[in-house]
Design goal:
This protein has one domain: Gcn5-related N-acetyltransferase (GNAT) (Aminopeptidase). The protein is 27% helix and 39% strand. It contains four helices and eight strands; from the N terminus they run ββαβββαβαββα. The protein starts with a strand and ends with a helix.
């Protein structure tokens, strides 16, 4: 799906097939999220599960922004069908251009229309907390530390709000 064209630049949102894109996804995870950490952190055990969804934004056929949605219970409410957002990253030179926002919104709409999920949740790094707030995620619980990565908040987006708008 072409999001928009600007000055002959083509920007596309794609639902990524794991087998075709996993190497690129992991390379972006390593470069942006796990720069000085062991490479094995870029490998999520759920990457190849059929219920896992990978999404990306391409600019002129270059994958520049990614996120993964993993079917996983929300720790604060295990009864609601939920997806965990992991590995959201945008290449440095494309940050602060609303590409991540567009990727997040398109991915939430995709998962909302095709699954019965109620919530999408994440462990958001403290330095991107405001990004999620601006995208209508809510904070739950206290700030906590993930070893070698840093301070995080548990945050969630209520997909039932999207269903009411449809």
């Amino acid at each position: 799906m072409i999001l928009y064209r600007r000055k002959n630049i083509k920007i596309n949102f794609k639902h990524l097939r794991t087998t075709n894109y996993i190497e690129q996804i992991r390379n972006i995870r390593k470069k942006i999220l796990y720069t000085h950490l062991p490479t094995n952190l870029c490998f999520y055990k759920e990457d190849f599960l059929s219920a896992t969804h990978h999404f990306g934004i391409f600019i002129d056929n270059e994958l520049v922004s990614i996120l993964t949605l993993i079917k996983n219970f929300y720790i604060y409410n295990t009864k609601l069908p939920s997806y965990q957002l992991r590995g959201m990253a945008t290449k440095t030179e494309f940050q602060r251009k609303n590409i991540g926002k567009s990727l997040l919104q398109k991915s939430l709409n995709y998962i909302n229309l095709r699954t019965n999920t109620s919530l999408v949740w994440c462990h958001a790094r403290k330095n991107v907390f405001n990004f999620y707030i601006k995208n209508e995620f809510k904070k739950q619980g206290s700030l906590f530390y993930i070893k070698n990565i840093g301070l995080h908040y548990t945050m969630y987006f209520d997909c039932r709000l999207l269903k009411k708008q449809s």
